Amino acid sequence: MIEIAFDELIPAVLAGGILGVLIAASLTIILIFAAVFYVYFSFAWMTIADKLKHRHAWLAWVPMVRTALILDLGKLPWPLVFLYLIPVLGWVAIFILLIVAKWNIFERRNYPGWLSLSSIIMMIPKAGIMLYAVVLGFIAWGDRKKMLKV
Length: 150
What we know:
The protein is mostly helical. The chain has one domain. It is elongated, with a radius of gyration of 22 Å.
């Protein structure tokens, strides 16, 4: 029989408890940031769809359907979203098609199409997603016509 001294057990339990609290706090913070970005991107895409006169702008709030909405707004056939069902190659194809669709959308909103390349930079943690959020904010809520008159 293995005997463990009670005073040896307390530090181990405390360390495990502290580690558990830190992990739970980290996961909570990550979930909060994910929720904030989800709401921001959904609202931005809904605003863009409204400004481009799409009948079903609310589709921006449905995760997989948002891709179909972006393809439709970019004048690409929305059924291409089913490329998600093809592992790796389909995902790469969808990623490229989304960049092309965003290029078309940004130009329709009177912004340079090359801003859609910020989708590639978005893959860089922290700074990349912030850059993409700023670009999307300009496209959604900025008024390029007023900016050009100034």
